[in-house]
Design brief:
183 residues, alpha+beta, globular
Length: 183
């Protein structure tokens, strides 16, 4: 029997992953399954592959996300499976390894946020272009649904741009279940 250990994925990453990763979606029983295949030689694949001990060559990783609406809230579950061939697979990632993977995705997300706002501001002549950029970003990824405000996002944008956006990858930040460490 396969035993799965649940890991709490920050909810704000789900809309980002669903929108920005190529995969196959299937609507079933009022919910949506999205299967995202990750090649071992891709950046995400290399990150995962480096954490798995073993001699078997992995053909691909499969990140599966299930989302469903329960009342006004969305619920979701995720899992990552290693496929060796058509008939062999395993779930070899520990809780710490999964947390590292999600921290890696979180760093991409925060970097994407900063570059989105910078690019939006470069291409606009509006007076309140940072505010408009943050609103558009929050709308694209349902961030207001997770309780984040325009003011929090503005503070975080300036914090990351003042420190350098790539500093997110050079420091060992913990995975925050409040967006960007804001709870």
């Amino acid at each position: 029997m396969i035993r799965l250990r649940p890991i709490e994925l920050p909810g704000y990453l789900i809309p980002f992953i669903l929108r920005e990763c190529d995969g196959i979606s299937l609507l079933k029983d009022g919910g949506e399954y999205k299967q995202i295949l990750i090649e071992p030689k891709s950046v995400l694949g290399q990150f995962l592959y480096a954490r798995i001990k073993g001699d078997k060559e992995i053909r691909e990783f499969c990140l599966t996300i299930y989302t469903n609406a329960e009342g006004r809230k969305k619920v979701f579950s995720t899992e990552i499976i290693n496929f060796y061939n058509s008939s062999e697979f395993s779930i070899d990632l520990s809780f710490e390894e999964l947390e590292s993977f999600y921290k890696f995705i979180d760093s991409y997300f925060r970097t994407y946020f900063c570059f989105f706002v910078k690019g939006y501001c470069k291409g606009n002549i509006y007076k309140s272009k940072i505010k408009k950029a943050i609103n558009e970003f929050c709308d694209m990824y349902d961030l207001y649904e997770y309780g984040y405000s325009q003011n929090q996002m503005r503070i975080l944008y300036y914090r990351y741009t003042n420190n350098g956006v790539l500093s997110l990858f050079q420091n060992n930040n913990k995975l925050n279940y409040g967006f960007f460490g804001v709870t």
